[in-house]
């Protein structure tokens, strides 16, 4: 795992026996994954050849490790492996072989040797309740703040590390928080989701490691490249929503016909994530395509924000309307309501300047 501090990515790969031809392939794939034009390959090659690699330290707090599980199943294993195995990941509590005092010493050595230049990835929410959680005899928030102090930037992965997630659900017994509640003086990127889409994690890490800049972010510090649209915007069931055709219960005729899941609690209209376009498991499917309403896992407070299987609009069960007329009415009412919510949310995202990211650090929109 450990590399020389000043090696470039290319030098690390050369030492691992990667040929020049394969290096150029890696650079080309990386360019595509980062969403850059093919003409930018030269820029990526230059970065990989000349810039010292950026070490990554990955900390865990209160989580299910689903985020790490997801990224190790990225359908772009080449890039995930490049980041996780070959180049940058110096410390990861789940993946590394060291444990106990040995692991603590390794982390300290990496932080000291790379002060101010490593990327800190945080998975899991941070318990701040007195005596709630300690690792190696130290409080979790102390561990976070120590690692944050020397970080170039912090990437919070998962709903737990971004917005508190399940551990912060009421009554939040550990007084759990996301990273940005506790660290105020570093650029923080929120890669939201429970877990996030693996390719979104990989891409965000690669963006910083390869381009040396932060991706453009929305008002919740999520990379706009993946969180600019709602799940609803690209949903495979969207035609049924627009036509006012809804499943009323799991397994009814509407459900079997693939109708919209809004009345079953789908939060797609107010959830910003790329599930409908990137999908999961090598692009195979995603929750709504598989028959489950979106739970809003990339939004703040997703665990407490409304029942999972209750429609979001009070107008759904309008007394006196027939099922068909009711569905059509709901389609219109829900459309108006969610469109307003989406527009307001989008407006906020577009207007706000993320408070925790210096303007100069944000990549300019091309
Ligand atoms: Fe949280 Fe990550 Fe949900 Fe789990 O560890 S975002 S509980 S999928 O995976 O932090
Ligand atoms: Fe898809 Fe949900 Fe929107 Fe219906 S409400 S179109 S299921 S995202
Ligand atoms: Fe999460 Fe909804 Fe996607 S629950 S995984 S944002 S479809």
Describe the structure.
By secondary structure, this protein is an alpha/beta fold. The chain has 2 domains: 163 residues, Rossmann fold; 119 residues, Cytochrome-c3 hydrogenase, C-terminal domain (Cytochrome-c3 Hydrogenase, Chain A, domain 2, Irregular). The protein has 15 helices and 9 strands. Strands 2-1-3-7-9 form a 5-stranded parallel beta sheet, with helices on both faces. It has a two-stranded antiparallel sheet with strand order 4-8. Helix 2 crosses helix 3.
The count of DSSP E runs of length 2 or more, i.e. the number of strands, is: 9
Q: What is the CATH homologous superfamily assignment of the largest domain?
A: NADH:ubiquinone oxidoreductase-like, 20kDa subunit
Along the chain, the helix and strand elements come as: HHHEHHEHEEEEHEHEHEHHHHHH
So what's the CATH class of the largest domain? Alpha Beta
What fraction strand?
A: 5-15%
The average pLDDT is 82
Count of individual helical segments: 15
The low-confidence parts are: 314-366
Kindly report the CATH topology of the largest domain: Rossmann fold
Tell me the major beta sheet: 5 strands, parallel
């Amino acid at each position: 795992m450990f590399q020389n501090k000043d090696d470039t990515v290319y030098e690390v790969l050369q030492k691992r026996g990667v040929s020049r031809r394969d290096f150029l392939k890696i650079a080309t794939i990386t360019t595509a994954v980062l969403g850059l034009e093919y003409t930018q390959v030269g820029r990526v090659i230059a970065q990989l050849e000349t810039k010292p690699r950026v070490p990554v330290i990955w900390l865990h707090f209160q989580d299910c490790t689903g985020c790490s599980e997801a990224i190790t199943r990225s359908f772009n294993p080449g890039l995930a492996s490049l980041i996780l195995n070959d180049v940058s990941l110096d410390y990861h509590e789940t993946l590394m072989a060291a444990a106990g005092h040995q692991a603590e010493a390794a982390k300290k050595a990496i932080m000291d040797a790379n002060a101010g230049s490593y990327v800190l990835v945080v998975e899991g929410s941070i318990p701040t309740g007195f005596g709630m959680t300690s690792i190696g005899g130290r409080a979790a928030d102390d561990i976070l703040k120590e690692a944050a102090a020397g970080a170039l930037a912090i990437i919070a992965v998962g709903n737990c590390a971004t917005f508190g997630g399940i551990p912060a659900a009421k009554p939040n017994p550990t007084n759990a928080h996301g990273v940005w509640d506790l660290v105020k003086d570093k650029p923080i990127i929120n890669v939201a989701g429970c877990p996030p889409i693996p390719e979104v994690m990989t891409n965000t890490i690669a963006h910083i490691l390869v381009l040396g800049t932060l991706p453009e972010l929305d008002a919740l510090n999520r990379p706009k490249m993946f969180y600019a649209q709602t799940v609803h915007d690209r949903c495979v069931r969207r035609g049924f929503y627009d036509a006012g055709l809804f499943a009323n219960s799991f397994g009814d005729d509407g459900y079997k016909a693939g109708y919209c899941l809004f009345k079953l609690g789908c939060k797609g209209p107010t959830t910003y994530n790329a599930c409908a376009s990137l999908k999961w498991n090598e692009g195979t499917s995603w929750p709504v395509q598989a028959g489950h309403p979106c739970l809003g896992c990339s939004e703040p407070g997703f665990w407490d924000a409304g029942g999972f299987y209750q429609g979001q609009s009070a107008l759904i069960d309008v007394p006196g309307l027939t099922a068909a007329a009711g569905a059509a009415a709901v389609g219109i009412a829900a459309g108006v309501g969610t469109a307003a919510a989406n527009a307001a949310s989008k407006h906020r995202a577009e207007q706000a300047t993320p408070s925790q990211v210096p303007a100069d650090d944000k990549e300019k929109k091309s």
